[in-house]
Amino acid sequence: MTQLTDIDQDLERFRLTRSGFMRATVVSVAALGAGGAASLSPSRARAAPPKGTVTRYPLHVPPSTSPASLTLAEAPAVVDLGGGQYSNVLAYNGFFPGPSIVARRGDAASIHLVNGLSEETITHWHGMLVEERNDGGPKYAIPPGASYDYAFTINQRACLNWYHPHPHMLTGEQVNLGLAGAFIVRDDLETALGLPYGAHEVPLIIRDATLDTAGNLQYKPRTGGFDGQIPLVNGTRSPYLAVDSGLYRFRVLNGANARIFGLALSNGSPFTLIGNDGGFLESQTNLTRIDIAPAERLDLLLSFAGLSVGQSVMLRDLRAGWDLLEFRVVAPGTGAVPTLTLPTISKLSDPVTTRTFSFDGMSKINGKLYDMNRIDFQVPFGQTERWRFTTNGNAPHPVHVHGASFQVQSRTGGRGTVYPWERGWKDTVLLEDNETVEVLIRFDAFRGNYLIHCHKLEHEDMGMMSNFQVV
Ligand code: C2O
Ligand code: CU
Ligand code: CU
């Protein structure tokens, strides 16, 4: 059987599963609209922008919540994307994005997940170091109406993680229709740095979306990855953020199913990069452009001190040529970018073994489709290993590992370099065509079953995922 035939079969299976879900989703949203409290008139006024200008709407900032005794319900909701443009979405507790979970190292999380969808789901805490039963892998999916209880202690460096559904073959759709939120971990080292906080620390969940003619989020999977027509930041269409001319900390997550963003400022000013997936980097770097793949995170400092009240600057995506978010200076502020002494990072070294993972086609790792009940390999607890990621095409493949962070060692072929935002601790790394990326990894938190997969969610759903066991 040729590889193309395999891909066609995967695709067919994927489409069949998906079409069943999409019908179910439409029914439940319609039912909500007919009788639910959230029912909204479609004739709600939408101010027509004057020709040639783009009307911009205030950036949504999701409410914050503690993970102690938190109930999270995944359910259809109607949300305002900005300026009264109401959209049917799937949301956590009615918010798109979901509430930002904020906790300190040492805190206990006790989260009650309720499935208010018409399909199975489960929530994964991307980047959190938790036991298998708290990791929310596809094996733990729960049916509609059911609930699942998580209980874990937060024990890792300060960082921006996130949460999203992880049911097999349905992750792309559920995330794309709105289910994702930030999970921020704080610690004493972070506090000691005295970074901007409150209104000066802003999460930015950047993604793309496609709206149907009624303005509802619409999921149109493609095997090469979902390709949305418009950007959304924190679920806001054409957003602006009113800022003062001071210092800000932006916690950036690429929450797109498949799209890579090339972030830059319209005036060419640099961002100061201080952290990524696994928390702070060892040193800060000024960069005028940063490419961020799905599921990657960035911790950026930006001072608007060079701008006066009334001026603005645009956060842009240089890949699609999109305006993502306008920063409007509305008040004077203070603060230049400080020179920080960031926490040191102990380097992994001396790997005892090397494993190679080939991301094949659009649905396989090392020639195999995901099988929920198959454990593909075992990793000794506490052993440092070299993992080598390769591909025979169909990239980008943002490679993600559950259960541990890794340190990127090298990228050969393709772009041929490790970028400043790929240093430190990572849990997701971008693999482009012709590239080999090597990382060092050590599982020293928990034994149990974890996942490695492509975080282009359409590839993941088609089977580009593998179970392994830490023993
Ligand atoms: Cu963000 Cu296994 O996923
Ligand atoms: Cu994950
Ligand atoms: Cu992929």
Descriptive account of the structure:
By secondary structure, the chain is mainly β. 11% of the residues lie in helices and 41% in strands. It contains four helices and 32 strands. The protein has a seven-stranded mixed sheet, with no helix packed on it.
Brief sketch in words of this structure:
The chain has helices at residues 3-35, 171-176, 188-193, 457-462, and strands spanning 57-58, 64-65, 70-80, 86-92, 100-104, 108-115, 123-126, 147-153, 159-165, 181-186, 201-209, 230-233, 236-237, 239-244, 247-254, 261-265, 271-276, 279-287, 290-292, 297-303, 312-317, 322-331, 353-360, 364-365, 375-379, 384-391, 397-401, 406-412, 428-431, 436-442, 448-454, 465-470.
**Averaged pLDDT:** 92
The beta-strand count equals: 32
Intertermini distance: 35 Å
Uncertain stretches of 5 or more adjacent residues:
1-8, 15-47
Helix fraction, binned, reads 10-25%
Structural class based on helices, strands and sheet pairing: mainly beta
Which sheet architecture does the biggest sheet show?
7 strands, mixed
Question: How many helix segments?
Answer: 4
Coarse shape: globular
Could you tell me the radius of gyration in angstroms?
Answer: 21 Å
In the sheet with the most strands, the strands line up as 13-12-11-15-20-17-18
Which small-molecule species are bound to the chains here?
CU-O-CU linkage, copper (II) ion
Estimated share of beta-strand residues: 35-45%
